[in-house]
Amino acid sequence: MAAQAKQLNESPAGTAAARWLPDLRRAVDRLRQREDQLALLLSLVIGAVVGLVVVAFILLTGRLAAHIYPAGSAGWRRVAAPTLGALITGWFLFRHFPGARGSGIPQTRAALVIEDGYISMRTVLAKFFLCCGSLASGIALGREGPSVHVGAGISSVIGRRLGLSREQVRWLIPVGTSAALAAAFNTPIAAVLFSLEEIIGDFHAPVLGSVVISSATSWMVLHLVLGDEPLFHVASYHLANPAELGAYAVLGVVGGLGSAVFVRLLLSLRLRFLALPRRTAWLQPAVGGLTVGVMGYFVPQVLGVGYDEIGRVLNGDVILRTVLLLAVLKIVGTAVCYASGNAGGIFGPSLFIGAMLGASVGRVAQFAFPGHTAGAGAYALVGMGSAFAGIVRTPLTSVIMIFELTRDYSIIVPLMISNLVAYFIAQRLQPVPIYEALARQDGIHLPTAESRAEHERISVQRVMHAAPDPLSLAMPLAEVLERLNGNAVDDYPVSDASGFRGMVRRDDVAAALTTSPDSTLASLLKAPNAEGADPHTSAHVHPDHAIGIALSRMGAAGLTVLPVLSRRNVHDLLGIVTLHDVLAEFGVGGLRGEGWDGG
Amino acid sequence: MAAEIAPPGPPPAAVASAQTFLVTFALVFAAIAGLFLFDSFLAGVQQRAGRAEAAARYREGEALLARGDARRAVERLKAASAIERTNSRYALALGEALLQAGKGEEAAAVLQPVLERDPDNGAASLAMARVLRAAGRPGDAISFYHRAIFGHWTGVEAVERTRVRLELVDFLAARGARQELLAELLPLESESPADSMLQRRRAHLFISAGSPARAAALFRAMLRRDESDADALAGLGDAEAAQGNYRSAEANLTAAARLRPADAAIGAALTQVSRIRVLDPTQRGLADGERQRRGATLLGHALVVADRCPAVRADSGARLVLDSARAELAQRPGEQALAAAAERLMDRAEQIWRLTEGCSEGGTADQRAAAVVLNKLSE
Questions:
Q1: What are the C-alpha distances in Å from B138 to residues A258, A510, B141, B142, B187?
Q2: How does DSSP classify residue A302?
Q3: pTM for this prediction
Q4: Contact, A410 vs A343, CB < 8 A?
Q5: Which candidate in B17, B21, B51 is best for mutational testing of the A interface (most A CBs within 10 A)?
Q6: What is the pLDDT of residues B68-98, one digit of tens each?
Q7: ipTM score of the complex?
Q8: How far away is chain A from the Cα of B122, in angstroms, using its nearest Cα?
Q9: Do B46 and A59 touch (CB under 8 A)?
């Protein structure tokens, strides 16, 4: 047998495998250690996989919908299909796949912030198939949120399968979300912005490169399969008159109000549904299905996402009464569908609501100022962005997304104005953004933009003190210790003729004094060209730094006092900031009013 | 017997991780390949279904358009065009439906991308010509008619070109653009020399284009082929009447009436020519007195039309001219001054007739005959 094994290893195939397999393994190990190369490879792979999966999701949903609603189908289907679809998916979501409920955006953010990026394969598959069925049956929700959740889930699964660290798996989440949105909307730039603005909440995130690459890869895959068709084909619109910006500002107001109404209605209805007995949870989605089904019986355009109707309205096919009715019905239908627990997103419905509201304003503007306003389609286009900015609260993403959807730059100024007005109005009327509010209803507290920015608003400048008289390098250690003992803090700045040299600790001085009592301060500080001697590299802050940075640098350096140096000349000591002062600024332990006594 | 080889132990941790890494990537790449195939299949199914639906909508739209229901036809054709955006046939049908529904601007917006993709598309150019014609932009419409004539067609190009040219010709005839009409009529002969119906139509249009001699030549050619061609005789009569050869016109129309006594049009034309013949003062061989009498009759007719023309009544200068003309009409010239009087009366009649431009439609049969003569004098 030993001879047989030896013969096997020494066979041509065995010899070849024995030769390249170790090389391959070494290459893999090297790759695992090179994070940048691994990140690049994963971005490409995730972009491709997620792009293909989202395309499959879109196509499958479309084919299923075509079978459920064949051309010329009877009206009863419009009532039965959403009700039955919601009933079936509701049962599965409640009994087997609770993680697949909702739009997917809050769930993705929760996974990123709370679960170390964990999204199970089970949730991914459930989300994919159940949302496919739900949306195809006519539920008035969108596909983009579920796509984001699926994309994030695929990234998570791949990262965990590859044995990556928790931190690495976490940072793959936005890579997956940007790939998903790029494929779902055919908007690669907006996908990147959304991942940074909404999912991570930081435009300077370290994964920016990976997010961009995955978005681009997903977009290329989409084009390979489906070609280069924008989501909406829109006529080229222009500002008819500069005074028209006023009308677009009015549209922003309408969009903001409509957004606030929609979000409040959705949240209040959801609370009511959540208050019902838990045993009815599987049945609740059917309420949403029946509601939208009854609406859809009379007004079929309410069913599904409604991209066809959006396309018509964007091209000026607008009757005022109809678009107003559609806006109202969609607000109610989507709110009920989501609140009752159906799986699906609100991106698409937001665009629908915005398009209808915009078209309404546009039609009124045309009546009031004929010849001085653009067509109602232009207003529908801007309205989409307004509602999206007001509901989802991502104004920058909204502007870029509408631009990418239409590939027309000329409408961008009205879009920016309208978006910002809608954003501010929605924020005033509904301070908590919808995704945070939904998460809170589930008992999850996600970080908000405000909370993230809060600690960044207080700068070192606000809490720093004037620099004390620095210690001289020639000062004897005994004198130095005496000076330090007279102060409450343990660290003190040291300067010489060239300026600031570093900080010296009381403990270090005391220790040096016992071994070399006649030494001067110069013996404690490193030589000018020694490592760590240069203020460029030793712990310090600048006046414009957030105090959070001061705190983290204190911790890293083991100091309770940091020098505040000028950005123009790092040897120019502007002042100091103490741990005491930072904590006092946050109001910790009632420390306000106490601080450095100046020595 | 050799001892059994101990089975290999579990691989060391580093080697297992690398294996998992490799297997995972292999699975992922396999998934990419599988998904790509699946998506391509689904996309193909989607495209086929889309094309079938678009075709169904197109057929419905065409049927509705044929029944005259342009509004519903627009809905169906819009749906078809939205599914297959690059299908020119659907876009053209939609453009036509929009035009029939009175939405010319929308029709132009639909046709523009088709022309941008294919500037030589004959059908698209024709559709745009019709849109511009309805929009009251004749110059642009004519330009697109020409593009349609010289563009490429999916059917038999010669047939399409002739059809388009005939449509243009009718348009120009309706506008009274004689020179442009003549320019379009001339190439028709080379395009369809053997088509007798077309030749007949050309001949009549030559008269409208102010080239009755060419019309007469065509009608004579038809009569050489068939002497008993009543239509050709009547046409020749019209052509000769237009040339002022009223006796010959009368003779041909009489011959046509004999061949087709129940034809009211020929009868009316004959009557009209006869009236004109007795009114036209420019015929050869007329005595001065007869010319003077006919001149006075024409002046009288011109004054009648001028009196009921709002533009003339509102113009004080024009009223002075009318008063002066009435004064001349009341004069009784002597035998020696008949020729001069005839000339004055004809000049005055022509002058007043020019003032009544736009007011000279309708009237009795005699007034219509007088109008023909006065128009001829004014040319």
A1: 47, 102, 5, 6, 21
A2: G
A3: 0.73
A4: no
A5: B21
A6: 999 999 999 998 998 888 899 999 999 999 9
A7: 0.77
A8: 24
A9: yes
